[in-house]
Amino acid sequence: MSLLLQADTLSQAATQIAEDVASDKEITLMSIIFSGGPVGTTIMTVIFIMMFFAIYLYFERLMAIKAASKMDQTFMTQIKMYLQQGKLENARMLCVSTNSPVARLIEKGLSRIGKPLNDINIAIENAGKLEVYKLEKNVSLLATISGAGPMTGFLGTVVGMVMAFHEMAASASNKIEMSVLAEGIYTAMMTTVVGLVVGIIAYVGYNHLVSITDKVVNMMEVSVVDFLDVLNDPV
């Protein structure tokens, strides 16, 4: 019985030690991140703001582009059928009721029917540029953050090293304690790490958005070509 009690006591002690170690690690990590002094804390705050905006911009644009890519597969089939039957108003109403970049391009083309084909093509191209601008809105900010994040982290590194060497130069004794240099080292190391993380997140997010935007643009181009083909040979 006593052996069981001892084993239970040892188990509880081990669990408590593990929890204390985990808590110490968490506190140590947070203290490392935010123990860079006023300058280091300011730089770290700027980097975290960049991270927040990068994540927000990525998901906001991702949802917008995904919404723009959704289109009824029968849309162009119905447009072709209406054009072949001469039902331009029906085709125009279908475009108005469909909320997608392709529908807005086709509607612009329908509004120019009766004019030379080149004029119709130019009108669609101009409308297409506007739709592409809407898709790419604020995406360039991700590219900016992907470069600015690591550079801001590197700035923190330089500032941290300057602080460390300043403490060394200002020390009255020849023996330098690690606690004297801790603030500068924290700033130098953590700003670089966090800045690189922000840069990676923004870079990957930017390239993914560019990739799916290209797919939507390609879908728009294919639909416009189909529309112009019907105008050339509506029968």
UniProtKB/TrEMBL annotation:
The chain crosses the membrane at residues 39-59, 139-165, 185-206. InterPro entries: ExbB/TolQ_transport, MotA_ExbB_proton_chnl. It is found in: Cell membrane; Membrane. It is a multi-pass membrane protein. Residues 99-221 form the MotA/TolQ/ExbB proton channel domain. Keywords: Cell membrane, Membrane, Protein transport, Transmembrane, Transmembrane helix, Transport. It holds the Pfam family MotA_ExbB. PANTHER family: PROTEIN TOLQ (PTHR30625), TOLQ-RELATED (PTHR30625:SF17). Belongs to the exbB/tolQ family. This is Biopolymer transport protein ExbB.
